[in-house]
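Catalogue entry: protein
Contents: sequence, fold tokens
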Amino acid sequence: MKKILFVLSIALGAMTFTSCQQETALNPNPEFDPKADDSTPTGGGSAATFLASTDPLNRAALLEDFTGVRCGFCPDGHVKAAAAQAELGADKFIIMAVHTGIYANPAAGWADFTTPYGTAIDAQADVSGYPAGTINRLPASTLGVQAQRGGSAMSRGSWKTAAIAVNALEAPVNIGAEATIDANNLLTVNVDLFYTQGESAVNHINVALLQDGLVSKQAGGSPQNAYVQNHVLRDLITGQWGEPVTESTNASSRISKTFTYTVPADYNGTGPDGGGAVVLDDLKVVVFVTRGRVDVLNAIEIDIK
């Protein structure tokens, strides 16, 4: 911000102070002053609105909870995920419920919350039973817990332990993001990345759209016929494995990207066998960066304005 000369009027000074307050309110990292470093991000963007912290940070844990409406033990997984999030903090433990597998596949009389992406993510994790989960798509053994079958999939009793291990890891990249939606249901997601460490492997930006408050029949649920489904993956805006980062990912690199997506009225239809209507106020966005298809380097969840 330009220096204000002493001779300027008190009224102009008050206007400048108000402007500073508004910029701070838009910053999702209140401890980080985006004006402290005025270098220009790679790929466009304004340094004054750069959203990612430049301080070294540890990773947020991203749980991909493989679940299904006909899975009787899955509600207990939802309970354990919610408890871990409450204990570790919503910024340190992010939940993405991926409805996939035999208990989620379309069936008469049951809601269909599946996506085109769940099967491949499930297969990569090497899931052998439900509910299962991965934490940052890392091998379970490297996080100090037992894998279901040697891959990254683990049972619900291990999620919190694995998340604590991830929270102790340094994040090579920090993520800042904001999302807005207009009257035509056009969702715009601005993503800023700051690399605190260099990355030689190809990284991918993943932007996921989630929805809370979906009511459906759920085996093992309470109540069974009006169970509330939260954190439900609706779409991967950047596709199955994300958008490759083509810019430099050396230490101190800044990258800014903008993604747009038209939110539909529903997913898989609104009938009893569909996925239900979209409620804009119940949507949220998760942005995460992977090393290739695995190893979530960091993640952030944001509300939509």
